Structures
1.
Amino acid sequence: MTEIDVKQKVLAANAAAAAGLRETFARTGTLVVNLISSPGSGKTTLLEKTVAALKGSLSLGGLEGDIATERDAERLRKMGIPARQILTGGSCHLDARQVERALADEGGRLSNLDILFIENVGNLICPTGYDLGEDFKIVLLSVTEGEDKPFKYPAIFSKAAVTVVTKIDLLPYVPFDLVAVREQVATLAPDGRLVEVSATSGAGMDAWLSLLTDALAKKRAEIPAAGVAS
Amino acid sequence: MHEMGVAAEVRRIARQSVADRGPGRITCVRLAVGDLAAIEPELLKYAWEALVEGTPEAGATLEVDWRPATQTCRICGDLPGRAPGTWLRLCPRCDGVLSVTGGDDLDVLQVVFEEEDPVEREAQGGER
Ligand SMILES: [Zn+2]
């Protein structure tokens, strides 16, 4: 009997793949955002409106993590941008190697963009621990889900650089304490940003869009070669 | 239920670490799991058992070393004995913001490997 010391991080292979992706996107100057939320929080609708607003001036693409259907990628392709579905076959999160394979299959169509949106599997827990080589994680919380979510799922709300409260047009009809959510998010992510939007009415969309374009500009400025690479 | 994915990754790492050892079998894998790793040790063990059933690792046990996170209040100081998992970054006494250290471990520490005894193999008529 031999005891073999291994001392290896279980997620090391994921971390290595994520580092590779981050390097690729540093070269292309692509801003990569990883969107995480419960099912039905309005991720795809927000993306549709975002694409409608930005596709005239920026090249955009989407990677859609889903357990079994092609539906979300189809919705983005209908908006006129390249999108690929990653079917996880039951798994509750995307991992960096799946992203790597999907990008390779698309042959550069999704890796040479201004902004790549990665829509993770709808789930506030499992995607939190998996680095996908993104610039930052965004967590979405719709007003129909209840205001206790940040403290119930603190990991994602403290890791996300941006919290997007969605469906604020429904605020008059649901008991949702926006002030309480602002306080919880400020506690969990003191350096994080919070935006409140309604993709339906358009309220707050300007703040959301400029958050994205500012982040892209910042990334381009930090990587001097990136702007001229493409 | 990402415990199944984690179990599969643990097996991949374990197999890799014994790849150059010749014939034999893995009998135990020791893991460190932190408070904040979002892993339920019992679920992980079930996932492991389901995963290795009918494979060369069948019967190999998974041992989990639990690694708690330490939480310190900037006002009250150390908060010993907080229940695992209650890691909301707020002090239960003064509502101050806590600093949290450790607890993010998710590591394969050790693999126990049972070398195949050539004499015994001979006696069993070259089984396996
Ligand atoms: Zn305190």
2.
Amino acid sequence: MSTTTTRGVAQPAPAKVSRRRPRRGLRASSTFNFWLFTGPFLTGLIIFVFVPIGWSVWLSFFEARFTVTPSEFVGFGNYQQVLTDTNFRNSLVTFTVFAAFIVPATWALSLGLALLVNRLRFMRAFFRSVFFLPTAVSYVAAALIWKMSIFNGVRFGLANTVLGWFGVDNIAWLANPDPPWYWLVIVTVRLWLQSGFYMILFIAALQNIPRELYEAASIDGAKPGWQTFRHITLPQLRATSTAVILLLLVAAYQAFDEFFNLLSKATWGQPPLVELYKMALGQNQNYGAGSAGAVVLTLLICVVTLLQGRIMGFGRGEESK
Amino acid sequence: MTTTAPDITETTKPAKARRGGGVMGSTGLYLATGVAALLFLVPFYLIVRNALMTDPEITGETWKWFPTSIQWGNITEPFDDVTVDFARSLWNSVVVAVLHTAGILLICSMAGYGLARIPYQHANKVFYAVLVTLMVPTAVTFVPSFVLVSSLGWVDSYRGLIIPGLFSGFTCFLFRQYFLGFPKELEEAARVDGLGYWGAYWRIVVPNSLNFFAAIATITFINGWNAFLWPLVIGQDPSAWTVQVALSSYMTNQTVNYHLIFMATAISILPLIFVFLFLQRWLVQGIAQTGIKG
């Protein structure tokens, strides 16, 4: 990011290229061009991102049911309502449980797949494609397969069929929160959908590890396998791991599609976005409380992201360069 | 930037060479990979199986791995269904995904180029304003965005489905990073020949960046096609449903028509499988470069 350099120099520099356009690099012309190029994007960004954020903050201080032009100022009333709302607080618990399962599971599975695929000598591209293919499937379609064919609560679901071979009775996977089998359904659908994507990141990172490190380790007497993995592979993947965990957390935080579709009629296992959806766009159309909830969630995710970046050392920079 | 992304399709020397594993190690490796691959393929198999069976076979007492006779006639059923206008929802998805992709590529690439290459004294401030939006997850702003879009009267319209999603701070950021790494010499030559920023961009920069555009396009298209929350919010009337919203409505329908639902699912996934198979190279490259979907 350089801002100042040779402006308005009238000669084309033939050998050493100057950092700014020498010929037409008049200040007025580049200002005009800057806005020409960025104008459409910035206008949209203001209208469809900044205005909604501002509006949201403003609405969150008003009583606003079924209307977006409220008149009654309620101060922090909406915030109080949201934070004391059992459903909303439960949704934060749901998110925490979900993240506690899905983040380590996806990290381990995608790293495991990457290690497997990376060691293959033949058919590497084939296997990589197989694991990667679910990336193309939508959460809605996957939820549909999971709910209606794999974890169907009746005998013809695949899971119950397989369990039936071992004499296990039908399990109502989604219809009953106790025991909480629905977590198995929710976690496996996302594992299937996203592991291949993160596997690609890990494969890229694995191939960037200098081979000399492994050679040096073997000279030093490190046994191949766990020792090399523990002392070379894992530390070398640190930057990628950090980025992956951060991305997984943010993605888990925004979970909506599979919960909405798998647990549509349930009262349990509702993550924050589903609660927000019900609050603001459900029967009550309470935009005020919905906005307050959105503000709370946004603040939470910012804090989580910053904390994690601080604790683990934000790895994106090293990775993308 | 293109050069920094490792080419994953390239086969580097297998790690086995340094592991010294014998035939047993290799067999075990392929066995583990094969079992994992089979598990990953089961859901795809189930879609096809259910789509080509009759309902009594699907819900039968004994599990059948294959249909007794393949019901090719099922293919037309989603289109004949009167409860959901499946053809309309497919068409909506095509329009939305294509325009979404085209729009993002145009708007975000131009902005990225402007931020990366055009000198302007406040460019940094503008860039920070873009960076700030990366901290706010778009999924959380759907409530106020809906309020805004509905007060514009854009509910149930293509405008409402497409336009608010075009201003992706992240895609703009990616383009900026990419253009920072674009060789300046090419542009300089163009400018010596008398092209302005505009001409240099369209005639030099874009044609020489098609790989990167293809990578972003592939990821953006998949996200556009698979998007659910926003189309659900905007598509209040069934005529504005995208295929994902239509699929979701099947799950809450009173009557469950298994083979129809799975045929519809298969049809909704098919375009992406094509995109996937043909553009996989760019998709992988894009992910390795950017590390994120959308």
